[in-house]
Amino acid sequence: MMNFSNVLIRWYLQNKRDLPWRKTDNPYLIWLSEIMLQQTRVAQGTPYFLSFVSAFPTVFDLANADEEQVLKLWQGLGYYSRARNLHKTAQYVANELSGKFPDNYNDLLKLKGVGEYTAAAIASFSYNEAVPVVDGNVFRVLSRYFDVETDIAAASAKKEFAALASELMPKDNPAIFNQAIMEFGALQCVPKSPNCGICVFNTSCAALQKKKVDQLPVKSKKLKVRNRFFNYLVVADDNENTIIQKRTAKGIWHNLYEFPLIETDALEDFDFISANIQEEFFKNNAVISIEDCNDKSIVHKLSHQHLHIKFWKIKVDGTIENGVDAETLKTFPFPIVIYNFIETN
Questions:
Q1: Could you tell me the pTM of the whole model?
Q2: CA-CA to 217 of 20 to 30 Å: which in 77, 92, 94, 257?
Q3: Where do the domains of the chain lie?
Q4: Catalytic residue IDs
Q5: If we measure between CA atoms, which residue out of 275, 278, 296 comes closest to residue 229?
């Protein structure tokens, strides 16, 4: 057991990536990086981390920021509830805890948006508390090395793998062990076709001996994906002003902005859209022209939903109420698929 962690830590010290949040034990910065890296790859998350730290160097700066500024900086990272929770937690830590993060796993767990994994990461990296982190990387490394066939989607899996990691973890240096096992899963023991030939564990890994590397970890099937059909109305009046609205309903993209939306049950054509526009949206302005901006719908994949998105350019007569000009438009936080449309049209 000790040998496993020694070999692992030695590998880590020779192979670890130079990442900005590894140079600190400041809990604010570690919390920020961990929230950003949930459901986001390191290469994608790093520039966001750097721009957040530059905009909000302390938890007080983030707490005092405007939610729209936070969402705008987050734009493109997805899973926007992370950003809203991040902002609320910063306000809680700044205002209720005088800017000091809880210094132990159990109290960190009480923070909004902080689950077991993030709490363990902050507790071990900032305060050297001996709690194991269990994420997808850890499931994969341990299930392969020890040939554990527990379904990682099962409720009991986390407990079993945490107990195993805890046994392996050197209690005097939990932080480096946690960093090492996650990094090993990210760089060496990758999900598909890992290069076992160069692996430091290739003489002791049970999955490799039994030719089961590609079968582990065991994970039961995911939820069914829901298809939704969004038709966005990109309006332009005589002044080239347009209309946007804020998504206030709970669900995807909460508090982000979008164009007026007609959501349909299937892909709809020009006739359907033109018939529905005048009735619904522009009672005060005559529609001059309607143009289909993308013949095929753009498929935007979220974890449990596939959005089939079409943009329709609508030219209207006169001026629209509460119109937004092109410059102002770019200052609002949008879902990335709408932001990309605005940038290229």
A1: 0.83
A2: 77
A3: 2-215, 226-344
A4: 34
A5: 296
Superfamily of domain 2-215: Hypothetical protein; domain 2 (1.10.340.30)
Q: Which of 207, 215, 105 is nearest to 147 (CA)?
A: 207
Say if residue 217 is preceded by a cis peptide, omega within 30 of 0. yes
- Which amino acid belongs to residue 327? E
Q: List the alpha helices (DSSP H) in 169-267.
A: 174-187, 206-209
Q: For the chain, give the number of residues.
A: 345
Long-range contacts (CB closer than 8 Å, 24 or more residues apart) made by 65-71:
67/255, 68/332, 68/333, 71/255, 71/256, 71/333
Per-residue pLDDT of the chain (345 residues; tens, 9 = 90+): 569 999 999 999 999 999 999 999 999 999 999 999 988 999 999 999 999 999 999 999 999 999 999 999 999 999 999 999 999 999 999 999 999 999 999 999 999 999 999 999 999 999 999 999 999 999 999 999 999 999 999 889 999 999 999 999 999 999 999 999 999 999 999 999 999 999 999 999 999 999 999 999 999 876 688 999 999 999 999 999 999 999 999 889 999 999 999 999 998 888 888 888 866 666 778 888 999 988 789 999 988 899 999 999 999 999 998 899 999 999 999 999 999 999 998
Q: Specify the residue for token string 């090993």.
A: 184
Instruction: Give CB contacts under 8 A, 24+ apart, made by 207-214.
Output: 207/143, 207/144, 207/145, 207/147, 208/144, 210/147, 212/144, 212/147, 213/144
Element (H, E) at 245: strand 245-246
Residue 188 in contact with residue 257, Cβ under 8 Å? Answer: no
Backbone phi, psi, residue 299, to 5° = -95, 120
